[in-house]
Amino acid sequence: MIGTGTMFIVYLQHACGMFQIACYRIARTMTLETLRKNSFQNEYLIYKGLICAVDMHRKAMKFSNSTISRFKIMFALLIITGVICGSLNVFLIFQMTSFECDIEELSLRLIFMMYLLSYMFVGNYIAQEIMDHNNNVFVTVYNGQWYVAPLQIQKMILFLLQRGTKAFTMNIAGLFVGSLEGAATLFSTGLSFFTVLYSVRN
């Protein structure tokens, strides 16, 4: 489980790097001195730079979706199992602290619970990083001085800006969107199951 999680983190960090390359190419293409020069060769260089940036962005999105789609069944099972195990562990920890208990058993449960929470948080944090790097591409386009560019290039940049209105998310099997908000949802769902278990016990 740790090996698969580590490889997943490496894959998605690679995707973050690809998004950063797209940002760099856009920023480099849209420098003020490049946009102000009106020549056919300069327009060609701007087109070529933007095409390379868009291609890199498309490849990063495709790589991220491909990575998620290969692991989606495992992630769906991991999410369900993690929420159930977390709820049961919180319930057992609560029972152990309510009654006399073995300290070793309690510490083992607490360590497992911390491991489970950190695993869920790290997975969602990496998904949030992907979304933030994708949004950074469009922030770079917005912050560039595209309004100084020739009209044909402004139209191309407008196309890029319109693509930025559609959110790019890490959707896991259509059930869950990986993000920090998703991590909070998982934690609250686990606590909700704990309260159900506690109320059924009483």
TrEMBL record:
It is found in: Cell membrane. GO terms for molecular function: odorant binding; olfactory receptor activity. One of its GO terms (biological process) is signal transduction. The keyword Transmembrane helix applies. One of its GO terms (cellular component) is plasma membrane. The keyword Ribosomal protein does not apply. Keywords: Cell membrane, Membrane, Olfaction, Receptor, Sensory transduction, Transducer, Transmembrane, Transmembrane helix. Its main location: membrane. It is a multi-pass membrane protein. It comes from the Eukaryota. The chain crosses the membrane at residues 6-27, 71-94, 106-127, 172-200. This is Uncharacterized protein LOC112468639. It comes from Temnothorax curvispinosus. The gene is LOC112468639.
